[in-house]
Hints:
The structure holds 2 protein chains of 2 kinds.
Chain A: H1 8-12, H2 27-51, E1 73-75, H3 91-95, E2 101-107, E3 119-127, H4 136-140, E4 146-148, E5 163-164, H5 166-170
Antiparallel strand pairs in A: 1-4, 2-3, 3-5
Chain B: H1 13-45, H2 61-71, H3 82-100, E1 104-109, E2 112-115, H4 122-143, H5 147-178, H6 183-188, H7 200-213, H8 238-263, H9 276-297, H10 303-331
Antiparallel strand pairs in B: 1-2
Amino acid sequence: MSFDPKSASYLDSIEVVEVQRGPEPGGVGGAYRAFGETLRGLKTTMARLIEGPLTIQYPEEKTPVYPRFRGRHKLHKFEDTGLEKCVGCSLCAAACPADCIRVVAAENIPGDRVSAGERYAAVYEINLSRCIFCGYCEIACPFDAITMGHDYEMADYDRADLIFTKEMLLAEAIERTPLKSEEE
Amino acid sequence: MLPFAETGFAEATWIMIVKSIVIFAVIFGVLPILTVVERKLIGRFQHRYGPNRVGPFGLLQPLADVGKLISKESFRPANAISTLFILGPLLPVISGVLALAIIPWGDVQDGVGLYGIDVPIGILYFFAVGSIAFYGLLLGGWSSGSKYSLLGAMRSAAQLISYEVSMGLALLGAIMMAGSLSLVDIVHAQGEVWYIVPQIVGFGIFMLAGFAETNRTPFDMPEADAELVQGFMTEYGGMRFGSFLLVEYMEILVVSGIAAAIFLGGWMGPGPSFLDPIWMLTKMIGLVLVFIWVRATLPRLRYDQLMSLGWKVLLPLATLNVLVTAVLVVVT
């Protein structure tokens, strides 16, 4: 629909809202506006002062993460038998778009079982310097052996230290990240 | 005719020395705290904490800042004029310290006047000394041999002429009501009512001009960190830069002190007379907080806006204020 800004019908339509303007700069009206707006600004800043800071003092205070937050991986064991859930199928490594998981499987020896399945992961390494935390490994795993945890503080001085071995992934993670409660 | 000031009053030399040491100790004790308070308050005005890592509540922050500044190299650009470049930060420090002398902290008690010196021409002295500070900015900016510094110096010169006149006229009303230029006499004259009530216009103009005098927002064009990279301070580093910063806070204290003495009844307040300096300090700090509050609120004005504000609004208002005060003083 084309419109002519000067036509009366356009100006009368309810869609046109007149912009509210203060007094023009200069003169008494302008001085009044400048003064009034200055006071309004002072009121605004004072209100911010009274509200208090919103900063989260990061290393001491942390924002709670959501339960589905994808942090550092964890490997799991069966709670009753203590056997590893991972059977070394390498599906996670296949699903990984960053190609950061390395699994070398080995046969379980009957008297000394490591995992519940036929085979187990002799080597399970995640190179966290390459991981993009997409969570595909978690989805690919048929036994829920690998899940994403909540830890995101993984900075290190050495790239080699970012390659997490099976022992590190199996170990009980130090809970450094608060979790959001249901209400939050 | 009223005597301009008590000139027969003299003090022993050692009292003068002790007084100046005490004034120095107090002011230079307050200054660093002021820098933290400003940063913390500005933070709170913006929903932040401000510095809170160094020491309890971040109170040791100025110590860390000064330590850092001292350890920096005192760099000088190759095309700077060395003597003037060094003189640049020194002049404002000297003028700031000189201006501290006339701030009245209390009346004469037990034969000791609680002020540095009661100059009979008090306010003229303040203006004379305050203008010297601008030579520091001008010379420092000009001798740096840098575009930004030169622009900053030029701006401070332009700023100086546009507010100094109205600043003087703003105080004239209070001077006429008190009939004296001495700050001590002016405070005495406010026994009945503080001059902020009859001279509210003068107070407003003086504070506005004070923002310009101390190069504070909204009139911080000479430093203008956004477009001029600190203006006249661009080429300064280390403690020379630090002394420019120090002077800024000292000038805020001095302007607040003058405003408190002339408009807010100086040392007057309830309680015994030994509380007088505390009252004076409280009023000064109160005004300093206003400075900080305004800094947190207002953006920097444009260069020509300050000119037109100074010449077209403040000057006529101040003149009118003086005229009305003069008529009223004669009539009553």
